[in-house]
C-alpha cells in the first residue's frame, strides 16, 4: 500500500512534470492543426511521435475490459498520461445466470479511501448492468484526480485489483505565442482551472503552520494538504522555540525515509535535519531541492509529537514556466 501510494505520488508528479515540460518550450510551431506538445528538448523523458488527437476513447483494461483479477493500477500506470476530455470506456457483463459476480463503477472521494478500498463515501457512477454492449462511457472533464473502483463484494473486487486513478492533463494549446522571452504556459483556454495571472516567482518562502509555526497540537498533514502544491526550490521555514525553563517540550525536525515510517511515526531510520534549538528567530530553512517525497516529523518524545499531528509530507512539483 505504501509502495502504491508513493508510486501514485510519483505518477501524479510525473504527469505534472510532463505537462510542465510540454508547455515550456518557446519553439512551438504555430498552426491550428498542430496539436503536438510543443516539446523539443533532446533529453525529454516523454515524447509523442504522432500528432495528438483532440480526445481519445480508451477502453479500460484494453481487451481484458473491466474484470476481476486484473491489475488496473498497473494498467493505468502503463497507459498514462490521460488527458482532459478523454473518454474512459468500461465494459463488463451484466448480472446473469452465468455471471454471479458482476461489476460496477464507483468514484472514491480521496486517496485515503482509494488506498483502503473504503467504499463508505464512494459515489456510484455505473451500476452492474451499465457496462454491457458498447460499455459505459466516462468523460474526464474535470481537472482533478479520479479514483475509480469496482464497488461490488464489499470492496473485495477493489482490493483484488479493480481500482485505479487518473489525473487528466491538459494538452498544449496551438495558440502559443512565439518568442524566446515568452515563457508562459502555452494555454489559452478560457475555462482553464488553473492560471497564473502574475509572472511566476522562482521560489517561495513558506512558514510551516503559518502563524501557528511548528507546534504541538496542530495537524500539519491537514496544513500541507490545504497548502499544496509545493514547488521545487520552495523553502520551508520551521519556527519553534528552543528548550528553556518555560519550554520543557521542545521540537525538532526529522526526515523519515519512507511512507511506511511516516504513517507509523517510526523514527528508527529517520534523519535529523534540525535539532531543538535551530528553529529560533527567523526559523530553520529547508529547501525542497530534490524531486522526491519529503516526510517531515517532529522527532521528540519518542514519536508522540509526530503521532499527535506534527508530521506532513510534500512532493515538490516543477513549475509550469
Ligand atoms: C527541434 O530541435 C532540432 C534539433 O535541436 C531542430 O533542428 C529543430 O528545428 C527544432 N524544432 C523546433 C520546432 O524548434
Ligand atoms: C472538452 O469538451 C467540451 C465538450 O465537448 C468542450 O467544450 C471543451 O472545449 C473541451 N475542452 C478541452 C480542454 O478540450
Ligand atoms: C442500472 O441503471 C440503469 C440506468 O439508470 C437502469 O435502467 C437499470 O435498471 C439499473 N440496473 C440495476 C441492476 O440497478
Ligand atoms: C498492482 O500492481 C502494482 C504495481 O504496479 C502493485 O503495487 C499492486 O500491489 C498490484 N495490486 C494487486 C492487487 O496485485
Ligand atoms: C487567447 O484567446 C483570446 C480569446 O479567445 C484571444 O483573443 C487571444 O488572441 C488568444 N491569445 C493567443 C495567444 O492565442
Ligand atoms: C533551483 O535552485 C538552484 C539554486 O538556486 C538553481 O540552480 C536551479 O536552477 C533551480 N531549479 C529550478 C527548477 O528552479
Ligand atoms: C543544534 O545545532 C546547532 C548547529 O549545528 C548547534 O550549535 C547547537 O549546539 C545544537 N543544539 C543542541 C541542543 O543540540
Ligand atoms: C490530521 O488530519 C487528517 C485529515 O486531513 C486526518 O486524517 C488525521 O487523522 C489528522 N491527524 C491527527 C493527529 O489529528
Amino- and carboxy-terminal Cα gap = 34 Å
Are any ligands bound, and if so which? 2-acetamido-2-deoxy-beta-D-glucopyranose
Spatial shape: elongated
Q: State the major sheet.
A: 4 strands, antiparallel
Number of strands: 14
Unreliable sequence segments? 9-52, 173-200
Mean pLDDT: 77
Radius of gyration: 23 Å
Spatial sequence of strands, sheet with the most strands: 4-3-6-7
Order of helices and strands: HEHEEHEEEHEEHEEHEEEHE
> How large is the share of residues in beta strands?
15-25%
Please identify the structural class as seen in this structure: alpha+beta
**How much helicity do the residues have?**
10-25%
H/I helix tally: 7
Quick recap of the structure?
By secondary structure, the chain is α+β, with helices and mostly antiparallel strands.
Description:
- α2 links the parallel β1 and β2.
- The strands form four sheets. This protein has a four-stranded antiparallel sheet. A four-stranded antiparallel sheet has the order 11-10-13-14.
- The chain has 321 residues and is of the alpha+beta class.
- About 22% of the residues have low confidence.
- 18% of the residues lie in helices and 17% in strands.
- The site of one 2-acetamido-2-deoxy-beta-D-glucopyranose has 4 residues, from loops.
